[in-house]
Amino acid sequence: MNERAGSFAKLAWVVLGWNVFVVLWGALVRASGSGAGCGSHWPLCNGEVIPPSPTVQTVIEFTHRLTSGLALLGVGALVVLSRKWFEKGHAARKWAWASLIFIVVEALLGAGLVLLSYVEKNASAGRAVYLCLHLTNTLLLLAAIEGAAWSAGGGKFAWGRVPGLLKGALGVALLASLTGAIAALGDTIYPATSMLEGVKQEFAEAAPALLRLRLVHPVVAVLGGFFVLVTAFTKLHGSLKTRVAALTVLQLAAGAANVLLLAPVWMQILHLALAVGIWLGLAYGALEEAPRA
User: What is the pTM of this model?
Assistant: First the structure.
């Protein structure tokens, strides 16, 4: 890897780390009920560029918007540098452009959450579907930035050469993340004061759909966790195998703790961080495995 390619790869890893931070801060926005911290205004915050006398919720939401803007600039820098430092058709260029597309969609989806009032205690089916679309785009964005960093060294990726088991693990990880997002939304809108009360809420005759869907996630997570473990030990290599397996075990433990602790905000963020780590580990495994096949 030449000096420019090395510099590009380092920048891409930094941009990836920053975007992961933005994603986790976004979880804080949702879990703390701060989504309406800037009112129904976008891109302005409560009608102002810089809101005066902000509440805690406003600070959390406004910070998320600022960090998201910096993330967009970071991805934009990857596109500019990939065009400057790599020849036409290089994989780094393609991944950088894909990252830009995903982050623009990400910004539009984030704006939609505010403009459609899919915040605070909104428990509509539309919000749940929208949240799943948002999270899917987020994970694809992170994978694309990871692809840009990886491809700087000259690697070429072909989805068709990724082993089926690894493709399945990526799909399972995505499904577990989506059901987890719906469960987290249910925890935020319908918090329980005890495990017993939570179970009663979910099995009550008049229980809203979000609470009933919350029951799906533990089943998907446990079955999916075992599938990812099998994939890690059979399809991943070296330290990546160990890291993905360890993260998966930690994630299963964190999921149990999240239920027992009644989903505190910090635990929801940790739970998401582990899910992102597993996703990126599997995505990196796909990048490494495809050329080897």
Answer: 0.94
